[in-house]
Every structure is written in C-alpha cells, then in structure tokens.
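Example record for the data management plan.
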Amino acid sequence: MRIAGAPISWGVCEVPGWGHQLAPDRVLAEMRDLGITATELGPAGFLPIGRDERDELLESYGLELIGGFVPVVLHDPAYDPMPEARRALDDLGEGTTLVLAAVTGLDGYDRRPALDTKGWTTLLANLDAIFAMAADRGRCAVLHPHVGTMVERRDEVEMVLGECGIPLCLDTGHLLIGGTDPSWLARTAAHRIAHVHLKDVDTQLAEQVRAGQTGYTEAVGAGMYRPLGRGDIDIAGIVRSLENAGYEGWYVMEQDAVLTAEPAPGGGPYDDVRASLEYLAESDLTESNLTEVDLTEPDLTDAGPAEAGLAEGAS
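Corresponding structural encoding:
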C-alpha cells in the first residue's frame, strides 16, 4: 500500500478565502516528521513554479511528487482545455498523475450550473482527449468526481464510466457526499480506478450538503472530513476491495481542512494526519497479503438497493 500526503489536509487550497494558509515549510516538515515520503502538489503557487527548484525543495524534506489536483473547465464548447492540461502535465513531470476536476468556471465548490447535452458531449470528448494525450507521454490522467463540479452525482459518475475511457480518482469523501457509495464503486469498477484519495466523513453533515441545507465550504469548516477511522466510511473495506482487485496506485490521505488560525506546533492537521496513519497501521492495511479475486465487467446501471447505498437517496 503506497501512502502519500496532500497539502489540503493542512488547509492549503486553491479556493479564494478558504481560510488560513500554512507556509510550505511547515506543511512539508510535518509530512516528513510523520514519516510521509510522497505528496501531491497542492494549489498553484504553494510550491515553487520551476520544476528544478520545486523538486529540490521536496527532496530536502524526503518527499516525492506523485501527482497534482488540476481544476479545469471541460464542458464549455468555446474553451479549449488542451493547452492547460498539456502545461499541467509538463509542470508535474515524469511518473506523476494528472488529477483532473471538471470545474464550473465559478469560484469555489458551493454552486454549479446544470449541464446540457452539448456540454456533456464536450466534457466527455475533452476527457478522452486529455487521457489520450497523457497516455501518449507514458503518463496517467484521471477524473476526480468532486462536489461542486460538473461530475459530482452518481448518474454523472456513471455517465463518465459508460461514455468515455478515462479512469477515475476514487475520492471516498466526495463520492459519498455526491451520492455514490465508494464501497460499491470500489467493488464493481476497480479496473477503472487509477488513483485514490482517502477521506472519512461525518454522514450527517454530508447529507446536509447533498440536500442543499449547508454549503460545502461551511461543512468542511465544521469538520465534515474526519481522520480515517473516525467517520462513517468503511475505509478498510474499500482498501481491501481495491487491493484484492490488483490496484497498484497511490492512496493519498486527504482530510480537507479549513483553518481559522495558525495551529500550535504538532497540533491541528498534524494530529489528524497522525491519527489517520495510525488507523491504517492498526487496520493492517499497510501490507498487501490479500487474496486475489476475479473482476467481472461492472454493471453500474443495476447495482440494486443494497449496493447503491446512499445513492438511493441522492437528489
């Protein structure tokens, strides 16, 4: 099991006004002190723009760059996302994964427009084009279903799986909030999963976001994302399903946080990430000694009530 960190667990985010932003040196030092040896990139401007300077900084903390979250407008027929995606691939460098989010073009993740047929056609074609461009370079691009983007709800996830070839980033938290049971997806579509973000979630707050009663940013600030093992998602079961299916990618710990002030040394996000690492160790998930299983082609249109889980109540 390959475990990585992400700056968003320390409250570092691309959304304007997201909260107090910690300095890179503190975030990277705390990753190192927790024994983390790999990380995603974080938002633009968090790390040095130049690849050599960035990689030298990461290496000084014993960290390897394994990918980056890149929000891109993919549904607008008047906008060509290929140059932006190409730059992102170049900036990330060899051996990394491009983690795409199909953003709305609006700030933040609290509202999104409806997508018409033309928008869907454009989005799906752009996903296939970016996936092919990455593959031609020997690289991997994935789509991250994400709250407040054009691919959030279960029917939208199924549309991507059924109508284009790009693999997914299985983000346990965003899927659940959007109405897709991540355990079900890990069991039925593991062959389409190429990257994983591990989050645990307070389902009460998640249901409020899904119902439109609470904004996404407000819910994150209220602690919707919990350290692994302290929320309502079967993290251990999801990891075992993926490992049994032959998953060989990264598991990125991503407990999104909104900070109101600088935490005391060794407190705040550091404590939460440490608790997540302890959960993974105590659950015997850091060693892959699981039985291989045969994967059949998933049928995402006939999951049934038991497997659909929270998706049955999605609006």
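Summary line stored alongside the record: Strands lie at 2-4, 38-40, 64-72, 97-102, 140-143, 168-171, 193-198, 200-201, 225-226, 250-253.
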